[in-house]
Amino acid sequence: MATGAVFLFHCGKFFDPGGWHLTNPSTSDVVRRSIDSTSLWLMPLFFILSGLSTMIARGNRSALRLLWDRVLRLLLPFAFGVLVIVPPQVWVERVGKGAFEGSYWAFYPHYFEGWYGLGGNFAWMGLHLWFLALLFLITLLFAPLLPALARLCFASPYALALPVVVMSAVEIALIGQKIDARDLGGWSIVQYPLFFMFGALLSGEGRVRAALERFALPLLVLGVIAGGLWAWAPDSVIALAPRAVWRTARVAGAWGMLYGLLGLAARHAQPSPRLDTLSEASMPFYILHQTVILLFAFWLLSWGTPIPMKYAVLAGLAFPLTALLTRGVLRVGFLRPLFGLKRVRGGTSRGR
């Protein structure tokens, strides 16, 4: 679900007046506000699930064994992506903005000239793959602390209020600070470790899961209302309250949606071979999807069709091709490690 939402999110970025690698000649403020509201929960959900899965995967393994596993699952795909998957994105951006003329193969040697974001081309941060690099650094930070976190896992449903309180305080403290940049998924880089940590703390008592399942819909509705107010309120309404109030509404909206989504998943997601396959496919799909979207977006730049129709064409072309490429990665043994998957042994393999 989360990976599919990222795909739709990045299709929408093509029509965002705030700009992207490529921007459609006509943009939409509705798309911008939809992106703002989606960013409240989308990347935080990835970090929460990563914290939760890291705590479960830890088992009896040492911190060093866990980190080596994350080198293979995160850093190797990140390095492969920076060298192979991401360069076409930089090429279409440079060609689309008139900064380069020529084929991709003519551009590739220039890809290593200078640093992307600082006037050059080399995407050292991996563009959309920043998530993999940051997740590795966060895991590196928390790996020695996981045994302590295991003893602090939430034991009471009332503990679910703690992330809202802590992150509201952080959100307010960040007002006016340089580190409050929201270029990576809509949140400051200092907040993602907190999402990871609270995800790890959610791996404990069954009473917490039961509470999430029971109150999933009310929490989701609360999140949609609070997040909707933050993302969709006109400037005249925003001016009526201090920034701290809106920042608190932002955090409350984010956690309401996150708790609601986690509760619905816990209630309805049942283990199955199909779910295992989708889970395994999520990493290669994530790594591939933005490159495919941008290549089709480049082709669609000159189309004079309305935004809804162009969005449907973009998503309708990019999704099946990304899914087809993902299927190929799953089936080709030597490609699997490059996309964060275990090699196939004995004909089958699951896990990321």
Overview features:
352 residues, single chain
Q: Portion of residues in helices?
A: 55-70%
* Quantity of strands, as a count: 0
Helix-strand category: mainly alpha
Mean pLDDT: 91
Describe the 3D structure.
The structure is a single chain. The protein is mainly alpha-helical. The protein is 65% helix and 0% strand. It has two domains: 1-39 and 277-343 and 348-352, no CATH class; 42-86 and 123-269, no CATH class. The two termini are 16 Å apart.
Offer a quick outline of the entry.
The protein has helices at residues 2-13, 29-39, 42-58, 63-85, 87-96, 104-107, 130-142, 146-151, 161-173, 192-201, 206-214, 216-232, 235-238, 243-268, 273-300, 307-331. It is an all-alpha fold and 352 residues long.
Outline the fold blueprint.
Blueprint lengths: L1 H12 L15 H11 L2 H17 L4 H23 L1 H10 L7 H4 L22 H13 L3 H6 L9 H13 L18 H10 L4 H9 L1 H17 L2 H4 L4 H26 L4 H28 L6 H25 L21
Helix pairs in contact: 1-15, 1-16, 2-12, 3-10, 4-7, 5-15, 9-14, 11-14, 12-14, 15-16
